[in-house]
Design goal:
The radius of gyration is 21 Å and the shape is globular. The strands form 3 sheets. It has a 6-stranded mixed sheet, sandwiched between helices. The protein has a 5-stranded parallel sheet with strand order 8-5-6-7-13, with helices on both faces. Strands 1-2 form a two-stranded antiparallel ribbon. Helices cover about 40% and strands about 15% of the residues. Helix 7 links the parallel strand 6 and strand 7. It is built from 18 helices and 13 strands. By secondary structure, it is of the alpha/beta class. The structure holds pyridoxal-5'-phosphate (PLP). Pyridoxal-5'-phosphate binds next to helix 10. Pyridoxal-5'-phosphate (PLP) binds next to helix 10.
């Protein structure tokens, strides 16, 4: 299996190289050159596999022979050992034919664990084999940082530096990053906001001369293909539980960078009978405005009760548009250029494909709180604000009540105590047992000025030999 850039001017790579690369050198994103497609019989044959056995079947073709099957199996089996639920991704019923897929049973209580627990292990395996060491540098507004740290903490060949905006992440989120012990783990609290953190990481990728000889930076944000790949699995797994492939299934997905729902789109193209894919956004609703009216227009960032979906531009959307443009990379390169500076609409033929694939709905903070409250009233099930957006959008967009509608619950409510209390929940939701000492553990982080020299000096001193 080869991977090609959406902008057509970068070399094709194999899985191993795509894992170690972020953005393609032409500014595009890597996607598989061809996607495996499965018959209904083939899909039915996997229906009773365990989560990890299913993951092996789905992921193996994407590895393209870069990792021997036995080693890949071992990596996948190890990936989910720290998940607290034997089903890994359990379903909970909210109403007749309406379900919640709990993707927050991993070590950091957000769905990003599914991908980052695997990414850390894949990276460690590959760089060990190449007798190389790499440096992960990432910016976080909360969930990505802790999931990346947890995913890489045991990786002897990786030093990890996570930048978060000083005093601007929630206490639970900060402690989930800063209490993890390891001499390869470094938290930088940057005196700035999330955009400054991202700009710092971007500039560091562009000029890596501050690193010791032979080291390179690796990206852990959702432009990394391996993260998308790992997320395809739970769409299949959940669909089987409600009767696929004999029955069609619909999904509603709380969306920020379009990574999670893009994996659902791939599952559909691989043959899973998905009837509706609902793009659920918060007030940062560029995707909803585009999908409903073919107008791609950047608005100022708004801070909402669902901070992990607070984005201006969704990076992975380019991967999907690439297909809707019949993989015309020159047209995509031109479109992405224009999207940065002006309001754009896309040709009718491409837009018809987008509309055929996705429904969308934008949910503001008031409706988010209302949904948390009404679902709790009806069933005593407590949603986090991101998952509540998914449930609300599912209910608004649903066309066929005979088809099971599954909303992806992307975070545990204990991660966002202020939001659920604002919605009327009487106290901060309890953290799961394994995290009950979070507020007693010692924190480690370095406050650094928003200055690239200071950040690079800190990294250079702390990289292990
Ligand atoms: C990252 C995140 C999202 C958004 O996922 P994308 O793949 O960026 O669309 C939604 N909810 C939570 C809790 C997250 O951490």
């Amino acid at each position: 299996m080869k991977y090609i850039s959406t902008r057509g001017k970068a070399p094709a790579l194999n899985f191993e190289d795509v894992l170690l690369t972020g953005l393609a050198p032409d500014g595009g994103l890597y996607v598989p050159e061809t996607l495996p497609e499965y018959s209904k019989e083939q899909i039915a044959a996997w229906s009773s596999l365990s989560y990890t056995d299913l993951a092996f079947q789905i992921i193996q073709p994407f590895i393209g022979g870069c990792i021997p099957d036995d080693d890949l199996k071992a990596i996948i089996d190890d990936t989910y050992v720290d998940f607290r639920h034997p089903a890994i991704a359990p379903l909970v019923q909210l109403d007749r034919n309406e379900w919640i897929l709990e993707l927050f049973q991993g070590p950091t209580l957000a769905f990003k664990d599914f991908a980052l627990q695997m990414l850390g292990r894949l990276l460690d395996y590959i760089v060990e084999r190449r007798q190389q060491k790499v440096v992960i540098m990432g910016a976080t507004s909360g969930d990505t940082g802790s999931a990346a740290i947890q995913g890489c903490k045991r990786c002897s060949n990786i030093d990890i530096f996570i930048l978060h905006p000083y005093q601007r992440v929630s206490e639970v989120q900060r402690r989930q990053m800063t209490t993890v012990v390891g001499d390869n783990i470094h938290n930088i609290a940057l005196r700035g906001n999330f955009d400054h953190c991202q700009a710092m990481v971007k500039a560091s990728f562009a000029d890596q001369s501050f690193l010791p000889d032979g080291r390179q930076l690796v990206a852990v944000n959702s432009i990394n293909w391996a993260r998308i790949m790992a997320q395809i699995v739970y769409y299949f797994y959940a669909a089987y539980a409600v009767g696929a492939p004999d029955r069609s299934v619909s999904f509603s997905v709380p969306t920020g960078n379009f990574g999670d729902i893009y994996a659902g789109y791939l599952a559909k193209r691989m043959g899973l009978p998905i009837e509706q894919l609902v793009v659920a956004t918060n007030q940062n609703d560029i995707l909803h405005r585009f999908i409903s009216a073919n107008k791609f227009e950047k608005h100022e960032l708004q801070h909402t009760l669902s901070p992990s979906m607070d984005i201006v531009m969704s990076s992975n959307f380019e991967r999907m548009l690439f297909d809707c443009y019949d993989r015309d990379s020159a047209a995509i390169a031109d479109l992405m250029q224009r999207m940065n500076t002006e309001t754009v609409s896309i040709p009718d033929s491409a837009f018809a494909k987008v509309r055929g694939l996705f429904d969308s709905y934008g949910v503001d903070d008031a409706a988010t709180m209302e949904t948390i409250a009404s679902v709790y009233d009806a069933s005593e099930y407590l949603l986090d604000p991101h998952s509540a957006i998914g449930v609300k959008a599912a209910r608004e967009c649903r066309r066929n009540t005979a088809t099971p509608m599954i909303t992806l619950a992307t975070a545990h409510p204990a991660k966002f105590p202020e939001a659920v209390m604002k919605a009327g929940y009487p106290h901060a939701p309890a953290l799961p047992h394994h995290m009950s000492d979070l507020f007693d553990l010692e924190e480690r982080y370095e406050v650094v000025d928003n200055n690239i020299k200071d950040v690079h000096a800190f990294i250079a001193v702390n990289i292990r030999a």
